[in-house]
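Ticket #4471: structure output looks truncated?

Reporter: J.K.
Steps to reproduce: submitted the chain below (55 residues) through the standard prediction queue, then opened the result file.
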Amino acid sequence: MTSTSSLHVYYNTFSTRRKAEAFLFFQRALTAVAVGVWRAGKNALFLISNQEDTR
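Returned output as attached by the reporter:
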């Protein structure tokens, strides 16, 4: 799915192109934050489990 096709879909949903672009930007920002938090949490769990194994 390219950004142009998804923008076209949102362009039909929202009244203006600016609203569609703002929604896509917001959606991508939320996705990036969620992925970052998930990776940080996974790394923290991995480090904690490694510390318990070395005891």
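Triage note (M.O.): checked the attachment and the full token line is present. The chain has a mean pLDDT of 79.
Status: closed, working as intended.
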